[in-house]
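Notebook, bench 3.
Goal today: get a predicted structure for Imidazoleglycerol-phosphate dehydratase from Thermodesulfobium narugense DSM 14796 so we can plan the truncation constructs. The sequence was checked against the plasmid map this morning, with no discrepancies at the termini. Length recorded as 202 residues. Pasting the sequence as submitted so the record is complete.
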Amino acid sequence: MDHESGKRIARVSSIKRKTYETDIELEINIDGTGENSIQTNIGFFDHMLSTLSKHSSVDMKLKCIGDLEVDYHHSVEDVGIVIGEALLKALGDKVGIKRFSNAILPMDDALVLCAIDISGRSYFSYDVEFDSKMIGKFNTELVEVFFNSLAMNLKANLHFKKISGFNSHHIAEACFKSFAICLKDAVTLTNSGSIPSVKGCI
């Protein structure tokens, strides 16, 4: 919010990150409709990121060129970093955001709890187990890698807990969808016009 004019500032941002391991360009609009163009050349990851965008209503244009000949770790980790940075940048001073949210989301056999506090403090808790190590060519441990990177760079508290489930695809998708629902709710603008903290900043 522009405090002088009273007009709402567009909550958009763009990030470019280039290292010896990845070259990433990202544009987001928090107040979008979930339109997305995702290109990481990691099929399952692209599917999960598209799902995240759709259910959070965050428009996302992402291109990642990574060292996939090594493995998927660098690309997944760095995309998490960039999405976290972009969300933090787009949120600005966080005036009027709801800040907290939680969701318990079913995905067939899987049931996953996600809770978030966009607090300005980074903390990540992950109590999710998979029965299989791989989903196609995608290592299930990379779900944790992605969300840890995102939480650290969004400077948020982010908690996941698997309540039940046996199908690894469903468990992973429930993580991404529950996070998307929480994110959409937590960044919702209220009519308070103030920082949602007694400290006066988050």
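The chain has one domain: 12-186. The two ends are 15 Å apart (CA to CA).
Flagging this for group meeting.
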